[in-house]
TrEMBL record:
Residues 1-22 form the signal peptide. Residues 104-215 form the SCP domain. It holds the Pfam family CAP. SUPFAM superfamilies: Cell wall binding repeat (SSF69360), PR-1-like (SSF55797). This is CAP domain-containing protein. Keywords: Repeat, Signal. It comes from Clostridium porci. Cell wall-binding repeats lie at residues 45-64. The lineage of its organism: Bacteria, Bacillati, Bacillota, Clostridia, Eubacteriales. It comes from the Bacteria.
Length: 217
């Protein structure tokens, strides 16, 4: 089932642990557990990382949590991979999908003679985190009961106004953009001339894509 939801909020203030994809590197084990050494010889620490298409949680000391529940409430199996109902969650090239949505947004704005939005890495990290949150609670209210924009304050992303579009079920960037553009509220956010930057998140969970756009100025 496909879902859409939109909100435009004016707030004054600001910023999440970002989602990072790891390229290269190697796993290194010792008596205390397993670490992932990056190409620059440093180690992943303090939170989640995509590695070889799977999602792992690392402690401040750099060890991968395994066969437990992470501090933010997610389950990881004996290999350390994030699971939902026993199924390992994989990255389905969601990064390129997210950027494709951004490109289509600017195509739509160009057709209406509206200035292009700039890609914002901070907003993108927040949107990616929100894509996982809406799988749990499909709403502009976060699973902890706070409004969506609180994730910006947590991440240090400054803004004077912001907006969010969410959707689920569409399998391609083109499909989700068509759905949003056919919905007046979502379309308003996409074509809002006051916004100057955006980030997009896309998550693939249990065979379903979840999409989030975050806009700000």
């Amino acid at each position: 089932m496909k879902k859409l939801y939109t909100i435009l909020t004016l707030v004054a203030s600001l910023s999440l642990s970002s989602l990072t994809t790891a390229f290269g590197g190697q796993w290194i084990g010792d008596a205390s557990g397993w670490k992932y050494q990056k190409d620059d010889a440093s180690f992943h620490t303090n939170g989640w990382q995509w590695i070889d298409g799977k999602y792992y949680y690392f402690t401040p000391e750099g060890y991968c949590l395994m066969n437990t529940t992470t501090p933010d409430g997610y389950t990881v199996d004996a290999s350390g991979a994030w699971t939902v109902n026993g199924v390992v969650q994989v990255n389905k090239d969601t990064g390129s999908f997210a950027y494709n949505v951004f490109q289509i947004v600017n195509q739509e704005r160009a057709e209406k003679n509206i200035s292009a939005l700039a890609w914002d890495d901070g907003l993108a990290a927040c949107a990616q985190a929100r894509a996982y949150e809406i799988q749990e609670t499909f709403s502009h209210t976060r699973p902890d009961g706070s409004s969506f924009f609180t994730i910006l304050a947590e991440s240090g992303v400054s803004y004077t106004s912001c907006g969010e579009n969410i959707a689920s079920g569409q399998k391609t960037p083109e499909a989700v953009m068509t759905a949003w553009m056919n919905s007046p509220g979502h379309r308003e956010n996409i074509l809002q001339s006051d916004f100057g930057r955006m980030g997009v998140g896309c998550a693939y969970i249990d065979g379903i894509y979840y999409w989030v756009q975050l806009f700000a100025n």
